[in-house]
Amino acid sequence: MDEDISSRETGGRPAAVVAGIGTWLPPRVVTNDDLAAELDTSDAWIRTRTGIARRHVIDSGMATSDLAVEAGSRALKSAGGPDADAVLVATTTPDRPCPATAPDVASRLGLGAVPAFDVAAVCSGFVYGLAVASGLIADGIARRVVVIGADTYSTILDPGDRTTRAVFGDGAGAVVLRAGTADEPGAVGPFDLGSDGSLAELITVPAGGSRQRSTPGAPVDPGDHYFQMQGKRVFRGAVEHMAQSARSVLSRAGWSLEQVDHVVAHQANQRILDAVAEELGLARDRMVSNIEHVGNTSAASIPLALADAARAGVLRPGARLLLTAFGGGLTWGSTVLRWPIGVSAVTGP
Ligand code: COA
């Protein structure tokens, strides 16, 4: 038994263990030069300020659920087959305001009448989803849960906003969690989660909800249907909260920072990843990064980064990982796990 995750954390109940991981990126790639051809920006500005070189973007006619199904089916394949009894989709870009995207995804994954619902925690959604799934497993409500982070920010970005167009990309990543024990590699937890709703305006799509309704003929500024972000304040909040939350979860797990092999943080901006490393006093090479190739994919970013690092052989079985995320809400969350043995990422297309 691994003594540092004590049985107090699970109370003798089943722990959630990673059994499979899968991802999917839409085939169309938009480079910085492509953006510079239509907006007042440059490859040099975007690379220097964000570390991003390209991002994947959906074609019209495609929606978040399509990406979620592709990633979910690959995660199930990675886990050995289409067997799950709950589906969670973390997303800020659901197919529609109502109903949730997850039931459609569960049905298209061929999983039958399983519980399925969305998790709305913006870029922290995947970590929140892991926490909720762990609770379902600990309580015996489910024994095998598909947790999907899927977002298509290209559908909510202002086409004329050079800042957000440079930062965000579309994509989906998923894991299958199974009931197991807290001492086995792949066991997820404990968690640290938090929020600060007084800063909701830092990251927002103001219209389309109950506050500013999409009633035909109602005087809503069309720009209010687009994603809006106060970049500098978000930058500071991201560094502060991811570092703080990382420390809290390590203390709950009984791990020291020195024991952590890799930090897999929400891929918001390379400078944010570097600043989190500096704040924690970690060498930058312990921060997993794939932002150069995918940009900020919101809820999909952590599973995409995990799968890329696993495929590159960076995550050896048993490696100690710290996951930390920050996003609109504001929300933040962290967890730890040791990378499972014998789980290979299935990526696509
Ligand atoms: N190309 C060229 N110039 C750009 C630009 C672009 N794509 N985007 C912004 N600029 C300009 C601004 O208009 C501003 O010009 P000004 O000084 O004439 O007004 C200048 O660059 C500096 O803008 P600023 O916002 O101060 O830049 P920054 O260094 O803070 O970088 C972000 C902007 C968005 C990259 C950065 O703040 C960031 O990454 N924030 C966090 C974003 C994020 O991760 N959000 C999701 C969190 S979950």
Q: What this model shows, in words?
A:
The protein is an alpha+beta fold. The protein has 2 domains: 3-180, Thiolase/Chalcone synthase (Peroxisomal Thiolase, Chain A, domain 1, 3-Layer(aba) Sandwich); 191-340, Peroxisomal Thiolase, Chain A, domain 1 (3-Layer(aba) Sandwich). The protein has helices at 7-10, 32-38, 43-50, 64-78, 102-108, 125-138, 162-167, 231-253, 270-280, 291-294, 301-311; strands at 15-24, 29-31, 54-56, 86-90, 116-119, 144-151, 171-180, 187-195, 203-204, 228-229, 262-265, 320-327, 331-338. The strands form 3 sheets. Strands 5-4-6-7-1-8-13-12-11 form a 9-stranded mixed beta sheet, with helices on both faces. A two-stranded antiparallel sheet has the order 2-3. It has a two-stranded antiparallel sheet with strand order 9-10. A hairpin with a 3-residue loop joins strand 12 (320-327) and strand 13. Helix 4 (64-78) crosses helix 5. The longest helix is centred in the last third of the chain and has 23 residues, at 231-253. Coenzyme A binds at residues 41, 45-46, 49-50, 123, 162-163, 166-167, 229, 231-232, 234-235, 238, 268-269, 296, 326-327.
Task: Provide key terms for this protein.
349 residues, alpha+beta, Peroxisomal Thiolase, Chain A, domain 1, 2 domains, 9-stranded mixed sheet, 13 strands, binds coenzyme A
